[in-house]
TrEMBL record, chains A, B:
Name the record gives this protein: Alpha/beta fold hydrolase
PANTHER family in the cross-refs: AB HYDROLASE-1 DOMAIN-CONTAINING PROTEIN, HYDROLASE ALPHA/BETA FOLD FAMILY
Residues in the signal sequence: 1-21
Organism: Silvania confinis
UniProt keyword annotation of rRNA-binding present: no
Length: 351, 351
């Protein structure tokens, strides 16, 4: 009996190991740039004076994309746009070394397009100059991303306490190589979905704003899943929300013409926020900033839905999913979070 | 008979289509950072003043890596380091949309690790500040990378004349986000091969120098294939070559202690140069710069081999492979170039 149980345990272990080790079958993968602009310097190029800009060109402000198409993919690929200080790596391996949403959704049969937005990562050529400084700021991010209040982790936070995980987390940040420009980014993202074909758009944080504008600019965006959008909520001029002050900043809506706003009423939208967001004002800037962002998302949901839209705001603790940071898609329970997303995609017939 | 031939033609077509469309079977894939350093600002962090650097950290100068492990891989993975102004995208889709060396060598059974070196691409956090300017410079690169002499392509150049290909080519460039530092890069590359395990290193152009230093620093580098190394040739102090003047610059060797130099005699090295490199001085800087680089590579080969090394310099036109640019691994005939590399790896028992 003891041997039988041991054998059984080994089989279960072997089973879960096989499940983990199931290979990805990729029909096609590669990279490309999309969108962007070209600057041409006045004058005539002289091949003997190659360091003179005269007559030379400069291609910049494009997005850079790595895509993978699994065998027999679902109709719509998923295009994934990172947040502030991040790149396509946001969606890859988690800080503690597990699979991120790139692999998880490939395994669930979706083509994935992970993007570096214009002026970030591999899409570094910016048409506007920039100065980059090595400013120490990681305790700010630890707090702002709701891992905890430095040096303490939130109780039961879905983030590994392993030092190596924090090292990887900080090192996955990468700076702007030019000014953040919502219009430049949404233009390039629109070019990305022209290349991918009709797609589901995942956005994170600062990527939320460019995400709404991408859907306004291109009806190939068939749905949006926005993780913790931090700004850029667009409202019709006549229905602008009152500014929302917090201990961090004052959050405002952004006015757009009604016909632009209406584009957002035509597609299903899921907005997901994690845990440790207070519901009443608190003195800590990092927490209080998310209080007003969640409140703004709910106000936005109500206005879009009033105009016939289909926006859901899921505050994860309210559906029993606890401890999530600002990065629910790479938190320790990211498979559970992926299940929430999959359920949404299934309900909206996007699988 | 006509029908039989048609059927045969269809079968051949179907056969080649199937060959193209063969899926990649990936046992594991993901991303990580390797190496780097940490700066800590003096003082004590105050969570209420998160924009003050006091007491905060900054992780920078690491490499960023995307890796893929196929089913039943060869013993040694291939670590791929880009050249100046490039990123890991160098090894991915070619400018004209075909598979690059990442896919080609995955298909040939190698795990691949494509790297963004410190201060480039997704590894953007530099511990040293930088100013980035949108300087028009692409006709310089068109010439320097030996696509042609702008606006003319070299006759029979292995580069698509399609405008879209040139657009992608220019847009795959991405700037330094901090000063180029051979020591910082080779430190991070050494950390990459610690993570990958004993590996074959592919380098390109400016990556050549850091490649030699990586092998000096870490004996897990089991072989190097250097595509058109442009600088950083290391020699024993007593055997430094004479400086080599060209219409572009004066190329010099770099002195290293004998025991460091000797590390490069312990591993097989293949150096590959493409076409349109003159063998006598010419006035055009772009061409003349490569004349001295090829000459320096040959001198380096002779010195390493004199000390018991195993360096081969393959100038592709000399083995009948014509029209290659500075990017043989993404040129139109890159499968043929991959065959040259595979032959080398086979001979050196590295498959």
């Amino acid at each position: 009996m003891k041997i039988l149980l041991k054998t059984l345990a080994l089989c279960v272990m072997a089973g879960s190991m096989v499940a983990q080790a199931e290979p990805l079958v990729i029909q096609e993968q590669g990279s490309f740039s999309a969108g962007g602009t070209v600057i041409t310097a006045a004058g005539t190029f002289d091949a003997k004076k190659p360091l003179e800009p005269a007559g030379q060109t400069y291609h910049g402000d494009h997005a850079s994309v790595f895509y993978q198409i699994p065998e027999n993919p679902h109709t719509y690929p998923i295009v994934m746009l990172h947040g502030a200080g991040q790149s396509s790596r946001t969606w890859q391996t988690t800080p503690d070394g597990r699979e991120g949403f790139q692999n998880i959704f490939l395994r669930r049969g979706f083509s994935t397009y992970v993007v570096d937005q214009p002026r970030r990562g591999a899409a570094g050529r910016s048409t506007v100059d920039a100065t980059l400084t090595a400013k120490a700021d990681e305790q700010l991010w630890f707090n702002q991303f709701r891992v905890g209040v430095w040096p303490d982790y939130f109780k039961d936070v879905q983030f590994s306490h392993d030092k190596a995980a924090l090292n990887q987390y900080f090192r996955q940040m990468t700076p702007n190589t030019g000014p953040f420009d919502l219009n430049v980014i949404s233009d390039a993202m629109s070019a990305v979905v022209d290349k991918s074909g009709p797609a589901i758009l995942f956005t994170h944080s600062q990527g939320g704003g460019p995400g709404w504008y991408t859907a306004i600019k291109n009806d190939k965006v068939k749905a949006i899943v926005a993780f913790e959008p931090g700004s850029g909520f667009v409202f019709p001029q006549a229905e602008m929300p009152a500014p929302m002050p917090s201990a961090f900043d004052t959050l405002k809506g952004e006015p757009v013409p009604m016909e632009q706003f209406m584009a957002l009423t035509k597609i299903p939208v899921l907005i997901i926020y994690g845990d440790n967001i207070p519901d009443k004002p608190v003195a800590m800037p990092a927490q209080d900033s998310w209080r007003v962002r969640l409140a703004m998302a709910r106000e936005w949901r109500d206005v879009v839905n009033k105009h016939g839209g289909d926006v859901t705001v899921t505050h994860l603790p309210e559906v029993g999913i606890k401890g999530n940071t600002h990065f629910p898609f790479s938190d320790l329970n990211n498979v559970q979070v992926a299940d929430v997303v999959s359920q949404f995609l299934k309900e909206k017939k996007l699988e």
